[in-house]
Amino acid sequence: MEQPTRTLHGLGQSLWLDNITRGMLGDGTLLGYREQKHVTGLTSNPTIFAQAIKAGKDYDASIRGIGNTDPETVFFGLAIDDLRRAAAIFEPVYQQTHGVDGWVSLEVSPLLADDTQRTIEQAVMLHKQAAVHNLFIKVPGTPAGVPAIEELIFRGVPINVTLLFSPEQYQAAAEAWLRGLERRHAAGLDLDIASVASVFISRWDVKVADKVPTDLHNKLGFAVCAQIYAKYRELINSPRVQRLQNAGARVQRLLWASTGTKDPKASDVMYIENLIAPLTVNTMPEKTLLAFADHGKAERLMTLDDLSAASTLAQFEAHGIQVEPLAKVLQQEGADSFVKSWHELIDTVSERIGAVA
Questions:
Q1: Looking at the predicted structure, is the pLDDT value of residue 56 above 80?
Q2: In this structure, which long-range contacts are made by residues 347-351, counting pairs with CB atoms below 8 Å and at least 24 apart in sequence?
Q3: Burial annotation 128-143 (CB, 10 A radius, 16+ → b, else e)
Q4: Chain mean position to CA 136
Q5: Model pLDDT for residues 289-335, shown as the tens digit of each residue
Q6: Which residue in 252, 292, 219 sits closest to 18, CA to CA?
Q7: Against a cut of 0.85, is the pTM above it?
Q8: Catalytically active residues, by annotation
Q9: How many CB atoms neighbour CB 35 within 10 A?
Q10: Beta strands in 165-249 (DSSP E)
């Protein structure tokens, strides 16, 4: 029987790992995932790096080598080192797919989520510092992040738009990407600037679990995803995007994020099995990747005319839950949780700097 990850890949969806540690880069784990589990990219965030740096002394020699005592500078130095190594592991994928796949991602400081100008400056700086062609800079799709995305695409920085929850938020991010490319086109610049739009899923279901009856548990995330997927397909088919493709642009791919199951009573692979679609990405925690490789099923593609999504959303509305107002709350909570992780990360780096001094 064909391995589930191979089947998924064959259906046209990229499978990325939502994790990075120095250990997995050095001991062959990540390479093994590429070779045996069809993993073709990787995402990281402040929480992931905080856990990796806290976990042991893997980073101490590098901290000593950087010779700087500003924890943010030290962190970005460590993160870029790791992501360069990960990018090298995925370089064959990048080459084979002509730059569609094989990407790794580094996030700007979450403290900048409400500061357009500083987000632009830091993203440009990190992209230049890393000097790796298959590295996305992650920028949140917050109200302040959206104009930054447009400007960064215009400047030629590949962007992973993060913290998207709803159709409206996705649309705003996609249009920022489009405007950036249209400005490049008007200026006679190359349009081959890659981007993905990352939609967070599991937090929907966690947020409403205690507000709805059991038969609606773990249904809201999928209904929202169905709406977003329809918008994505509409965008791909639009004359506006096709005109840009005719001039050499590539589509900003839709990426499913936050796909680890949080409900112990639910299937541990439900956010993989039910969100399969070509020209999309699913980035998953290591535990979910291993579970899917072990017992997942890649059997059906998402459909465009998912009639159940509207009726599901109507049921949630009957319980007082409306998608767009709740999406704003989820985006703010997501940004706040990344800020909390960032402070923990910077504290951890400060401690390690002190320990190795």
A1: no
A2: 347/71, 348/50, 348/53, 348/54, 349/53, 349/63, 349/71, 349/74, 349/75, 349/78, 350/71
A3: eebebebbbbbbbbbe
A4: 10
A5: 999 999 999 999 999 888 899 999 999 999 999 999 999 999 999 99
A6: 292
A7: yes
A8: 138
A9: 11
A10: 195-200
Q: Determine which helix (DSSP H) or strand (DSSP E) holds 61, and give its type and residue range.
A: helix 60-66
Query: How many residues are given for the chain?
Result: 357
Contacts 24+ apart (CB under 8 A), 26-35: 30/86, 30/89, 31/89, 33/289, 34/89, 34/90, 34/93
- Rounded to whole angstroms, the Cα distance separating 13 from 16 reads 10
Tokens of 319: 């319980």
Amino acid symbol at 356:
V
CA-to-CA dists, residue 162 to 54, 145, 150, 307, angstroms: 24, 9, 14, 28
Which amino acid, residue 60?
A: D
Q: Which tokens is 132 given?
A: 């790796």
Distances (CA, A) of 148 to 27, 123, 161, 210: 37, 9, 10, 36
Report how far residue 266's alpha carbon sits from residue 298's, in angstroms, rounded to the nearest whole number: 17
